[in-house]
Structures are given as C-alpha cells and as structure tokens.
Specification:
12 strands; single chain; 4 helices; seven-stranded parallel sheet; alpha/beta; three-stranded antiparallel sheet
C-alpha cells in the first residue's frame, strides 16, 4: 500500500487526538523516504510521538489543519514547513466538497480578515462570500472507528473517517490497538483499499 505514495502527494490523516499516525505506517513511510508531502489533519489534540516524529522527519512540506490544541511538547520543526490554519467548519466543508466533486464552497467566515487575502470574493444577493477550494488527497490514513458497539455510525470519528475516505483516491485503515476488527464501520468497507492488522495482534 505504501508503494503508492510518491513525492509531492497529499495525505489526509484522522484527528491526532485519536493517535493519528499508526506506528506501522510511520515506519514504512520513513523507510520509503518520500519527500514534499502535504498533510491534511482536521484537528490536532495532544499529538502523540508518532505525529511529532512525522512533522520532524522533513518529509512534510505543508500542514493544513484547523489548529493545534494543547501543544505541550510539540515544537514546530526547523525547515520549510508551511502551516495553513483553516477554521474547522470551513476545513470540514472543503473536505466534504472534495469528496463530492464540488468546485468549492462559499462562506462568510474570514470576510474582513486576513483569511480573505488572495482569495476570490463572490457576491450573492448583496453579500460577500469567500470561495474556498475543495480539498482532496491521494491517500487517507485512518484508524478503524470503534465507537460504541452497535452504534458506530453515531461516533464522531466515524463521520470524519467517512469524509476523509470520500475525499481520497486510496484509503488505508489501520486496526486500532485494543479494538476488534469486526467493529469497523460497515459503510466504510466499500471505500477501504487496504486494511492493516494491529502489529500487536
């Protein structure tokens, strides 16, 4: 599955709060030595060591996220890492637009602020909106959504996993440590290209 990843590609990864970078994937990516990758992460909460190591590896040239929460111990790596901060609601809708094949979204968020710099402004019924372009990726890296047994569709992680999968060309799902493979969302099965078993299992 990692043979598909080439220099300059865009990767989408689930929330870092969910330990977003599986150790198996990180090990394989570092060995592959891909370069100039763009990383899209919806939210970064208390990033784990794998995520921090990924940022410091030098293979990521651009990070797109809605923000870094509780960044204790997380230092911005040296080098040309460009960080784009996007309001969470806008980021989610841009990913949704990418998955649905839309040309972008119109939003009033950012009007009159630095966020409108270099962006197209469209008037609708006398109101100004920013045109935000869709986001899509070559590869989505996800943990299986365990959620609540029997109610996985109600889990917040499920919804984000579904959006990331729809907006990506190739979907790799890693088994979350301590989870049961049977609990993976059935509605994601048709989008999954590779399922990697937990290394401890």
């Amino acid at each position: 599955s990692l043979s598909y990843i080439q220099d300059g590609m865009t990767l989408m990864i689930g929330s870092a709060e969910l330990h977003a970078v599986p150790a198996l994937f990180l090990k394989g990516l570092l060995q592959k030595k891909a370069k100039h990758l763009t990383l899209i992460v919806p939210e970064i909460h208390s990033p784990d060591q794998e995520f921090i190591q990924l940022l410091h590896s030098g293979i990521i040239c651009r990070l797109i996220t809605s923000g870094v929460h509780h960044p204790t111990g997380m230092e911005i790596p040296n080098g040309p890492l460009h960080i784009s901060l996007v309001p969470h609601c806008v980021l989610v809708e841009r990913i949704r637009a990418g998955g649905r094949g839309l040309g972008g979204i119109l939003t009033p968020v950012g009007i009159g602020t630095d966020l409108e710099v270099d962006k197209q402004i469209i008037m609708v019924d006398g109101r100004r909106f920013l045109l935000e372009k869709p986001l899509f990726a070559d590869v989505a890296i996800l943990f299986n959504c365990v959620g609540i047994p029997g109610k996985c569709n109600e889990c917040k992680a499920y919804e984000m996993n579904r959006l990331l999968a729809e907006a990506s060309e190739l979907v790799i799902v890693y088994e979350k440590p301590g989870s049961c493979a049977e609990m993976i969302c059935e509605t994601l099965h048709e989008r999954i290209d590779y399922y990697v078993k937990n290394e401890a299992g």
